[in-house]
Amino acid sequence: MQRLSRALRLHPSSPAGPCRLRGVRMHHLSSLCQGGVATMKKQNTWQMASGKSFVLGGGWRVRVLLALLFILLTPTLAWADPPPEHQYIEEYTGPETCEVCHLDAADQVMHTVHYTWEEKMAHYSPIPASIARINWLGILNPEMKIAGGCGRCHIGGGIMPGTPEAETPEAKAKIDCLICHAEVYDMNARYPEKDEDGNWVLPGDTSLKAARSAARPTAEACLRCHLNAGGGKLYKRGVDFAPVADKHADEATGDVHADNGMVCVDCHRGENHKVYGYAPTLWSRDYDERLTCESCHTDAPHANPLINSKHTRLDCRTCHIRSTGGLMKRDWTAEPVYDPIKELYGPVDEVAPANSVDPIYKWYNGGRLKPGQWPGRFDDPSSKLQPFKLYEGTVPVDASTGKPIPLKLGVFYKTGDLEKAIVAGAQAAGMAYSGTWQAKTFKIPLQLSHGILPADEAVTCQECHIPDGRLDFQALGYDAEAAARLASLSSPDAGTPRPLQVKFIPQPEPLEQTSLEQEPPPAPKALEIPWTPIGVAVIVLAVVAIAGYVLWRQKQTLAP
To answer: Which long-range contacts (CB under 8 A, 24 or more apart) does 374-383 make?
Structure first.
């Protein structure tokens, strides 16, 4: 019926005219256009796909002609290839265009972490000292079209998010569906501008080309925001999710999953636009369940049973991610660095090439990182050993309270005046500032989950189970004896028999000194029994008496 509807088009002279649905112009008959029933009335003018028109009359000739025409067209219509998805879209005006078919999609998005972006100090948070709340959106260099602000990667179209229940229809109408779903998208279109009310907004790419390319999110669609997180390509994690042949940095190792055709949403999937994913620094999550490798690879993925049975507390990433890189240190308190090309100032950064730095290893149980409370311990059975990137950030803190002071980044980038940025930031964040600050360095372990290597490139046993190997077993919680044993399993002499060793041998008692010149002591006397004649006589008489008594008893027994 759908193919037939595409073949029949309402003639322009028809009272109904072409059908237009909330931003989507469709030239085929639809149950939505005709109130649920496609009817044909007398004297209505119709136009066939051939372009010729005819008038429906009441005569039998017309009915026969129409029946024959339907019979002739039926095989062609039945076997025609359906057009690609979304090709009937003639204009994209926002979520209303998508919700013609995808009902409640915008409401679902507003209840996900990708929209609320909450409960993380580096992201939006309604509490004071939130960096993103006071640096949401703006322009740093209008001549070079350099934008600034955390909101540039937000899917809300420029409006700062609040709780989903408090959102307005205007906020819902500005959700950018295409930044995630369009295979073709111009990120340059997301340049901030002010609306009629003076508020910063992000127009986004609303082109017909982008709208008609809408599909399941690709890896490149996710990387439109995630690739440059932290201020540069692969800065935040220092690992890449891309095929080896299409890496985003020469030093990157790629990812074995991307090499095999997988995309982000193959793992980070979910319902109602929610996604699976967790990290110590991610306080707000769409799902509490952890996304694990065992979900696909089972809990016995290796051919070697020793690896499966003896490494149950070792996370898969510990062996299959061997390095990190990117932004390792950032100091906001040092003398700002001026960029003569961008004509802007910036913090002092220490950047390493992707996959050029060894990770650190920590026990992690999947919980949330709180100040002074790392979620994982050696004696916690639910904790596994994982690799992390150690990032160090130096920021100004109030000299009186020790609380971090968020900078007004527009002031910092444009003028390089740290003092003004501190005062403006504290004021905008609603913090009481004592007037003096001091530098403080925070060390934050960032979880590594991408850049997965194939088995033949993974970390080997010989890299960890040796003295001074990748793992400091004693620092991880093992006692000295167990740590020494674990660090020697793959040492050069591992597997060779060792001589028997006794931990304690008692000292022998010293022998008495002797001299060959001295006469030896006399030999001990033999045992001497003092025999006397009377004693001997008594013994002899006793023996004779006993023998005589025995003979007499035998004689009495034999007598008749």
So the answer is: 374/280, 375/280, 377/477, 378/476, 378/477, 378/478, 379/477, 381/313, 383/313
The pLDDT value recorded for residue 437 is: 98
The SS3 assignment for 97 reads helix
Joined together, the tokens standing for residue 534 give: 């009377």
218-221 CB contacts, 8 Å cutoff, 24+ apart:
218/183, 218/263, 219/258, 219/263, 219/264, 221/179, 221/180, 221/181, 221/182, 221/183, 221/185
Instruction: Measure the CA angle with vertex 412, ends 409 and 413; round to 5°.
Output: 85
With cut-offs at 50, 70 and 90, classify the pLDDT of residue 436: very high
Is residue 271 a contact partner of residue 265, using CB atoms and an 8 Å limit?
no
Amino acid at 94: G
- Tell me the per-residue pLDDT of 61-82, one tens digit each, with 9 for 90 and over: 656 666 665 555 554 444 445 5
pLDDT per residue as tens digits for the range 444-492: 999 999 999 999 999 999 999 999 999 999 999 999 999 999 999 886 6
How does DSSP assign 348-394, residue by residue?
EEEEEEEEEEPPEEEEE-S---BTTB-S--TT-TT-EEEEEEEEEEE
- Cα–Cα dist 85/69, whole Å: 29
Q: Which pLDDT band, with edges at 50, 70 and 90, does 531 fall under?
A: low
The rounded Cα 453 to chain-centroid distance in angstroms is 16
The DSSP 8-state label assigned to residue 177 in this structure reads S
Sign of CA dihedral 172, 173, 174, 180: positive
* Greatest mean pLDDT range, 95-99, 163-167, 537-541: 95-99
Q: Which amino acid is at 497?
A: P
- The pTM assigned to this predicted structure is 0.72
In the block, residue with structure tokens 């469709």: 26
Looking at the DSSP bridge assignments, the partners of residue 387 are 361
CA neighbor of 44 nearest in space, from 67, 13, 1: 13
DSSP collapsed to 3 states, 35-75: CCCCCCCCCCEEECCCCCEEECCCCHHHHHHHHHHHHHHHH
128's CB contacts (< 8 A; 6+ apart) are: 429, 430, 431
Q: Which of 318, 319, 323, 119 is nearest to 234 (CA)?
A: 323
Of 355, 305, 309, the residue nearest 459 (C-alpha) = 355
Q: Name which of 62-66, 280-284, 285-289 the model is least confident about.
A: 62-66
